[in-house]
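Hi team,

Filling in the usual template for the complex we talked about on Friday. All components are listed, including any nucleic acid strands or ligand strings, so the model treats them as one assembly.

SUBMITTER: L.P.
PURPOSE: interface mapping
COMPONENTS: three
RESIDUES: 280
SEQUENCES:
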Amino acid sequence: MPELPEVETIRRHLAPHVEGRTLRALEVLDDRWSRPLAGGELAAAVEGRVVERLGRRGKYLIWELAGEVYLLQHLRMTGTLLLDPQGAPPYTRVWLRLDEHDLAYTDPRRFGTGELALGGEALDAFFAARLGLEPFDEAFTTAHLHALARASRAPVKAFLLDQKRIAGVGNIYADEALFRARIHPLRPANRLSRTQVDALREAVVASLNAGITAKGASIDDFRDPYGVQGTFQDQFLVHLREGEPCPRCGGTVRKLRAAGRGTYVCERCQPRPRLRVAQR
DNA sequence: GTGATAACCTGGGTGC
DNA sequence: TGCACCCAGGTTATCA
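RESULT (copied from the run log):
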């Protein structure tokens, strides 16, 4: 499922093929993708415009079009963009027709979305309402993360998954970062020490960087625009490794549920928080 | 105001 | 073999 590294992989692959080219046509085969706009309405706003830049913010792919028109694409769980596929791939929901290239957007579960922002202010407002800092932003410091953590009683796993706090971290990279930082996913965020927050910040950045270097993780659906799988799944430290030995201490990786998500943890390296007993 | 949970959605796996 | 059920998870809406 596309998280920040997978979306960044797609962006890096596609940018040289789409930047500077004209988006001739947008064919929306499933209006669910563009709602509340009808597919035709969204297409009318973007067709005929030059793609000035293909950007990314969190898990969003940003098609920056001439005239300050922005097409904001989220792949959610199973979305994939395929460059110049042969024929129509299964589950194709949208075609992006550029001069010289066709892109098929496929999405078996139909969770992915395409939204429109008209003008820089609308774009800024869109992301301000949805996303916190980028983990690769200079402002993503230990002090910043510590301030956020102190204000949240939520389990740190839920804290990491909240896009309004940190943009781009999903279930895979949250598990990997917490393992690297030796922090139990159920520990309340406001009970992390500054040292732990510092370790967590470093671990988030390191995990995401490792994912980008490996061109993303392909558990089931993710493919790059050429249809090639990423390799980060081969480097998972704990994610999906239930019952296997911990790569650090040899203990057993266990699966539990945190923030409503399957969560993998070595409880020897990541000690479970002790229950606090209310006293009178 | 904050955190927890359900709903959206569909393919794949499991059990009967 | 075929059917029913459950699980996976990013985001949003709703509830406590």
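MY TAKE: Chain A has a mean pLDDT of 90. Helices of chain A lie at 4-18, 39-46, 120-128, 142-150, 156-161, 171-180, 194-213.

Thanks, L.
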